[in-house]
Automatic annotation (TrEMBL):
GO terms for cellular component: membrane. The chain crosses the membrane at residues 38-57. Residues 183-284 form the Fe2OG dioxygenase domain. InterPro entries: OGFOD3, Oxoglu/Fe-dep_dioxygenase_dom, Pro_4_hyd_alph, Pro_4_hyd_alph_FE2OG_OXY. Keywords: Dioxygenase, Iron, Membrane, Metal-binding, Oxidoreductase, Transmembrane, Transmembrane helix. Its cofactor is L-ascorbate. The keyword Chloroplast does not apply. GO terms for molecular function: dioxygenase activity; iron ion binding; L-ascorbic acid binding; oxidoreductase activity, acting on paired donors, with incorporation or reduction of molecular oxygen. Signal peptide: none annotated. The keyword Metal-binding applies. It comes from Channa argus. This is 2-oxoglutarate and iron-dependent oxygenase domain-containing protein 3. Pfam families: 2OG-FeII_Oxy_3.
Length: 295
């Protein structure tokens, strides 16, 4: 009798175990059934977050039109956008063959090679690596050619600057000999570190002719790539009809007449490091800076 009860008891335990195993299996397969939809939900939530973030980001930079994207290659001829000249040039002495009569902006990727841009970027990295601002923006002014790092630097910089001068003259119908390099002409390095002084606040809208005085034509040679070396940091022309941007690309030269027809700003850099060189020209020989000379 006791044995039978024991037998019955052990049977019951077996059955209980089976039921428990069955329940566990059912629960497991139920969860397995949910796994697909849950993963889909997670992916959708992530995609939505990214989309919202991108939307907010695009609102922040408020871009109406991208004039030239980083991916594009503007070869053979510069891409030119003509704009009406402001009156800024009427209030100063005019220099025929130089003072802007035709105003606008242009971009070319065929004046400076990516290899040349890389060499200049290495120089900028080394030069600015010696010091630099605590905030996000540092410059290394090289207008006098005071930084000489072997022959290559002087040769490349001189050569590059000559080619930029030639393309500006050709695009705006000027005599290249009547354009003079002016100051400041500088390397810039920008990252996302918060500004510590107002010198770090590179993002304010400005007119180069007002900010720097002597500029008639501004050129920017980019030494790094928007999107892969850094994000944010696009150049923005602030027109009454909207904002138009040029995305930096290593070796890209963007140039424009420096008056208020070309009010602009640089978007805040959100990630990475952006290198560029600002090279500018004046029509007024009194504001010319002499070429760096080799001993
Ligand atoms: O680096 C740039 O894209 C623009 C810099 C600038 O606006 C300036 O140097 O005046
Ligand atoms: Fe500027």
């Amino acid at each position: 009798m006791v044995r039978m009860r024991n037998a019955k008891g052990s049977n019951a335990t077996e059955i209980e175990k089976k039921i428990k195993r069955g329940n566990a299996l059912r629960q497991g397969s139920a969860w397995r059934g949910y796994r697909g939809p849950v993963a889909l939900l997670l992916v959708s939530v992530c995609a939505c977050t990214v989309a919202v973030w991108m939307y907010i980001y695009s609102l922040d930079s408020d871009i109406t039109e991208t004039l030239v994207s980083q991916r594009e290659l503007v070869s053979s001829h510069p891409r030119v956008y003509t704009v009406q000249c402001s009156e800024d040039y009427d209030n100063q002495k005019r220099y025929p063959g130089c003072t802007p009569q035709k105003c606008g902006r242009a971009v070319t990727d065929s004046v400076v090679t990516r290899e040349e841009a890389q060499i200049l970027r290495r120089l900028a990295e080394r030069g600015l690596g010696l010091a630099g601002s605590e905030g996000g923006a540092s410059i290394l002014d090289l207008h006098s050619g005071a930084l000489s790092m072997g022959k290559q630097f002087v040769n490349i910089y001189r050569d590059v600057r000559g080619r930029i001068q030639a393309v500006i003259a050709e695009t705006f119908g000027l005599d290249p000999a009547l354009l003079y390099l002016t100051k400041p002409t500088f390397f810039s390095r920008i990252n996302s570190t918060a500004a510590k002084t107002q010198h770090d606040e590179y993002w304010h809208p400005h007119i180069d002719k007002v900010t720097y005085g002597s500029f008639d034509y501004t050129s920017l040679l980019y030494l790094s790539d928007y999107g892969s070396d850094f994000t944010g940091g696009r150049f923005i022309f602030m027109d009454q009809s909207g904002n138009r941007t040029v995305e930096p690309r290593a070796g890209r030269v963007s140039f424009f007449s420096s008056g208020s027809e070309n009010l602009h700003r640089v978007e805040k850099v959100s990630w990475g490091t952006r290198y560029a060189i600002t090279v500018s020209f004046t029509c007024d020989p009194a504001h010319a800076i002499s070429d760096p000379t080799l001993p």
